[in-house]
């Protein structure tokens, strides 16, 4: 995905929320597609749809478990292997917004193709785009952008999934400057198909005291290098037409010129790559939800039971409305994020949130659509079961949703906790109060700020008047959130790292706040427009009502659980489960 184009840098919207701040001028108006972006998006999506009607049969590819090479070739010819690569290297040079919109189109038509193309460019050669030197870019990018060579991102290993820093693959530096790589990577998308592998391996370094330490570095490994081999193709639940294999490195010698970025900086490189990859999952989820809503609506309009079409029954309408709300909210979040990236926003919080929110709303939407189609959905003749199998992966890869919630909470808490470190010097507030004289100055300043925060609610002044109620709720929730952030920091101190349920609550609260503000911003832009019909305006107002109410309820529930004793039940119940190796009861016994 192309980086930002404006030259200026703006701070993360979500990071600001941890301080109770909302940069209204950054969030309003909602980022719009320019005329040229619209034209490009339209032309690209029309070309993709036309190509797919003629050449893509997702059900067949799923049954056969492979993508015909000529389909990938045809998609490459449309430019889909180099969407974000600068034109000077043969790519289309799309910015983040266009990339998201175009990529989403193909991802929804066939998720196996979406994953193949995503693994290629969103992560496979992204390290090269971000950190490669000119020589490396000139050598590889034209071939990668044209699809002549496909790419893979190799981080996961048998013993190292979420804990990516614990990889064991080792790159030993030789006297001639080359590196010898030995190790194994697991579940690598495009393995075997790809010619270019971004491989993360441990290298030896010295710390400031001269002690030997291992860090991670990133290398380009080519398919044909001696010592590279592949496992059998994995037999997967979904995205079955995509290639997933283990990759083995048996003393693979790579030249020093194949290192991407600086030695020892590979972990940061990998995390930055995944930040962008996650946005593609968010935008793919939007298209997936649009597609599933279309299917479910047609089904509900055609199926008659009890003398009427099921679309006329409240419980079916409730599901259709929820899918539309899921889709609208995710779309607002993804395109707020890409729009701000184009303007220079730091986006690791937002991309993690878009991935978590989008993948979960997609899963929920598919579940609802499946219920609407009921028995039909259960039959392989219909696409629901395939779509369900295909979409489940999005909650797992490119950072599981658990890890991304932890990341969202801990990285967000870091800023305010650094600011509160003066309080940290006095350990915790209760201890400080035992020695009030010593602590008085610090506490007085803190109390002043705290009182100001409690009195002041940051109101949004740019929200459309018809959404005032939701805007006010957002503002109150934002204040409550920032106070909850401070309370959490003071309550747990550095022990917050071991308190995952508190992290979960914090993450869920900020996810809801981001959803609300993105929706309020986009709906405001739509309502302020003079060219959009009243019917469209009514539709988005209703969706906004529904999203903001549900989101506020979810925020309130998570807020309450942060402070109540409810979450204390969880580890206790889990302990019983562990002791019984499962449920442990039988109705016969009790
Ligand atoms: C189809 C497919 C394609 C893939 N493609 C690639 C690829 O191209 N390149 C690549 O490098 N990798 C790839 N992966 C690997 C993928 O990124 C990992 O599966 C993912 O990171 C999770 O690792 P894991 O499966 O080992 O789960 P684990 O890390 O073992 O986690 C198991 C469970 O524990 C949870 N968990 C772990 N640690 C914590 C914690 N501290 N607190 C709370 N919960 C925790 C996780 O969220 C998860 O629910 C792919 C995987 C699949 C299935």
Write out key terms for the chains shown.
binds flavin-adenine dinucleotide; single chain; 21 helices; 4-stranded antiparallel sheet; alpha+beta; globular; Butyryl-Coa Dehydrogenase, subunit A, domain 1; Butyryl-CoA Dehydrogenase, subunit A, domain 3
Can you describe this structure?
- By secondary structure, the protein is of the alpha+beta class.
- The protein folds into 4 domains: 31-146, Butyryl-Coa Dehydrogenase, subunit A, domain 1; 151-266, Butyryl-CoA Dehydrogenase, subunit A, domain 2 (Beta Barrel), CATH 2.40.110.10; 269-401, Butyryl-CoA Dehydrogenase, subunit A, domain 3, CATH 1.20.140.10; 421-577, Up-down Bundle (Butyryl-CoA Dehydrogenase, subunit A, domain 3), CATH 1.20.140.
- 59% of the residues lie in helices and 10% in strands.
- It contains 21 helices and 10 strands.
- It has helices at 13-17, 24-27, 35-55, 58-64, 69-77, 96-109, 111-124, 126-131, 134-146, 266-302, 314-342, 348-378, 384-391, 401-419, 421-425, 429-434, 436-455, 468-492, 500-528, 534-563, 566-579, and strands at residues 151-154, 170-173, 179-189, 196-206, 212-222, 228-230, 244-254, 259-260, 304-305, 308-309.
- The strands form 3 sheets. Strands 1-4-5-8 form a 4-stranded mixed sheet.
- Strand 9 (304-305) and strand 10 (308-309) form a beta hairpin.
- The longest helix has 37 residues, at 266-302.
- The chain starts with 12 loop residues before the first helix and ends in an 11-residue tail after the last helix.
- The structure holds flavin-adenine dinucleotide.
């Amino acid at each position: 995905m192309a980086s930002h184009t404006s030259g200026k840098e703006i701070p993360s919207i979500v990071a600001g929320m941890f301080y109770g701040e909302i940069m209204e001028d950054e969030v309003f108006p909602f980022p719009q597609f320019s005329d040229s972006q619209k034209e490009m998006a339209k032309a690209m999506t029309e070309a993709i749809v036309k190509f797919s009607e003629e050449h893509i049969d997702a059900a067949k590819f799923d049954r056969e478990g492979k993508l015909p090479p000529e389909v990938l070739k045809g998609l490459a010819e449309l430019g889909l292997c180099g969407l974000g690569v600068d034109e000077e290297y043969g790519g289309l040079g799309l910015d983040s917004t266009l990339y998201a919109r175009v990529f989403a189109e193909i991802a929804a038509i066939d998720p196996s193709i979406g994953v193949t193309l995503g693994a290629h460019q969103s992560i496979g050669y992204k390290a090269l785009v971000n950190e490669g030197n000119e020589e490396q870019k000139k050598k590889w990018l034209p071939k990668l952008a044209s699809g002549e060579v496909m790419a893979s991102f190799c981080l996961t290993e048998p013993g190292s999934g979420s804990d990516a820093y614990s990889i064991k693959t080792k790159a030993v530096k030789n006297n001639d400057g080359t590196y010898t790589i030995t190790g194994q990577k697991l579940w690598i998308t495009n393995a075997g198909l790809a010619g270019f592998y971004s491989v993360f391996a441990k290298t030896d370094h010295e710390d400031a005291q001269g002690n030997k330490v291992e860090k991670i570095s990133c290398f380009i490994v080519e398919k044909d290098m001696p010592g590279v081999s592949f496992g059998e193709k994995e037999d997967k639940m979904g995205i079955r037409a995509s290639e997933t294999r283990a990759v083995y490195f048996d003393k693979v010698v790579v030249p020093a010129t194949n290192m991407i970025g600086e030695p020892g900086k590979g972990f940061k490189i990998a995390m930055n790559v995944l930040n962008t990859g996650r946005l593609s999952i968010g935008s793919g989820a939007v298209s997936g939800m649009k597609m599933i809503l279309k299917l479910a609506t047609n089904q509900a309009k055609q199926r008659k039971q009890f003398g009427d079409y099921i679309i006329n029954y409240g419980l079916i309408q409730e599901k259709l409305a929820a899918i539309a709300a899921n889709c609208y909210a995710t779309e607002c979040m993804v395109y707020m994020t890409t729009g701000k990236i184009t303007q220079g926003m730091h986006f690791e919080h937002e991309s993690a949130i878009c991935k978590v929110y989008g993948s979960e709303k997609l899963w929920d939407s598919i579940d609802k659509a499946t219920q609407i189609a009921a028995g039909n959905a259960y039959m392989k003749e219909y696409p629901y079961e395939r779509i369900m199998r295909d979409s489940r992966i999005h909650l797992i890869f490119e950072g599981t949703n658990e890890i991304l919630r932890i990341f969202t909470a801990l990285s967000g808490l870091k800023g305010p906790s650094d600011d509160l470190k003066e309080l940290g010097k006095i350990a915790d507030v209760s201890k400080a109060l035992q020695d009030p004289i010593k602590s008085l100055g610090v506490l007085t300043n803190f109390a002043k700020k705290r009182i100001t925060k409690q009195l002041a609610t940051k109101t949004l002044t740019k929200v459309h008047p018809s959404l005032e109620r939701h805007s006010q709720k957002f503002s109150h929730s934002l204040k409550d959130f920032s106070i909850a952030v401070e309370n959490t920091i003071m309550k747990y101190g550095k022990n917050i790292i071991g308190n995952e349920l508190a992290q979960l609550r914090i993450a869920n609260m900020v996810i809801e706040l981001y959803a609300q503000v993105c929706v309020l911003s986009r709906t405001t832009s739509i309502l302020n427009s003079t060219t959009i019909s009243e019917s469209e305006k009514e539709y988005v107002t209703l969706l906004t009502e529904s999203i903001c109410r549900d989101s506020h309820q979810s925020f309130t529930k998570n807020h309450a659980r942060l402070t109540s004793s409810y979450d204390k039940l969880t580890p206790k119940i889990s302990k019983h489960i562990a002791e019984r190796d499962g449920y442990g009861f039988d109705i016969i016994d009790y």
